[in-house]
Amino acid sequence: MQQKNNWLLFLIIALVIVSCDSNRVFDTYKSVPDAWHKDSIVSFQVNPPDSIHAYNLFVNLRNTNQYKYNNLHLIVEMVFPHGKTIKDTLEYRMADPSGKLLGTGYTDVKENKLWYKEKVVFKETGTYTVNIQQAMRENGKVNGVAELTGITDVGFRIEKPETK
Question: By the 8 A CB rule, do 37 and 147 touch?
Fold first, then answer.
């Protein structure tokens, strides 16, 4: 009986924590194997709730202390329902000048919520596809980093802009 009560308490706490995020419209992660290969694309299928309101878009990452770079280069592609494609090459800071990893979390796993686009209106109805690919390069080298270690999960998030 005690174990059942503990499980119920855990479930209630988890639901309260999840429900507090009222701005969230879409928020999903996908695991990356031991290393994120440069040709591996993480894809998300998104059906926006409407074609009127503006939303903020984020790339979410979880990384460990095995991530050895101060920055991160990503190629993020949004494919619209009717075939139009927008592709962006983005750079994010992942560590401070001393090398300490940025992000939130008390363990050696850090979560990073990285801006992708602001105030986006999904004017086309249907399914959008968001593709995320790592594009890391080491200084002085032409070829990209083939196997990027330290990234454990890649996510995509859509949220309502905060109202003031």
Answer: yes
- Judge contact between 150 and 63, C-beta under 8 A: yes
Task: Give the residue with greater pLDDT, 67 vs 20.
Answer: 67
C-alpha to C-alpha distance for 107 and 102, rounded to whole angstroms: 12
In a domain, 64, yes or no: yes
pLDDT one-digit tens code per residue, 88-146: 999 999 999 988 889 998 888 999 999 999 999 999 999 999 999 999 988 777 788 89
State which amino acid sits at residue 154.
Answer: V
Distance between CA 40 and CA 147 in Å, rounded? 10
- The residue type at 76: V
Measure the CA–CA gap between 34 and 151, rounded to whole angstroms: 8
151 occurs within a structural domain = yes
**What pTM, to 2 d.p., does this model score?**
0.83
Give domain status of residue 86, yes or no. yes
Largest Cα–Cα distance in the chain? 63
